Recover the amino acids of this structure.
């Protein structure tokens, strides 16, 4: 049975609106997202200066996007877990820790890829 709701172009427009609400909520409520997004805005032009070809530029940009995606998912998981209650729960803590670890891995990826590209260019 199909899911009720908008279809076609209306569905795409609605989805874009929900995405904008998500970005706004993350910006308003998550200082880590604001920090990472600000750093990404600064590093995007640097990617075009550092990368010597399209492949390097794309790799640099993708790592920044992965950090933002990871942070958005981390924030969503935290919001859902916090919504379910304030009592300490081992599974809730584990979910939040794993989501945080995903952000850490994404940040490490930025450091590694940007460092290797810089080393290849200047080292």
């Amino acid at each position: 049975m199909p899911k009720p709701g908008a279809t076609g172009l209306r569905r795409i427009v609605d989805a874009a609106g929900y995405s904008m609400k998500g970005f706004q909520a993350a910006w308003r409520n998550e200082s880590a997202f604001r920090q990472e997004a600000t750093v990404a805005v600064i590093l995007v032009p640097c990617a075009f200066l550092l990368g010597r070809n399209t492949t390097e530029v794309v790799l640099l940009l993708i790592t920044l996007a992965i950090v933002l995606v990871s942070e958005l998912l981390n924030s969503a998981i935290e919001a859902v877990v916090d919504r379910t209650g304030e009592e300490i729960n081992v599974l809730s803590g584990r979910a939040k820790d794993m989501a945080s670890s995903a952000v850490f891995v994404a940040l490490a990826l930025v450091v590694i890829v940007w460092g290797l590209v810089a080393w290849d260019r200047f080292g």
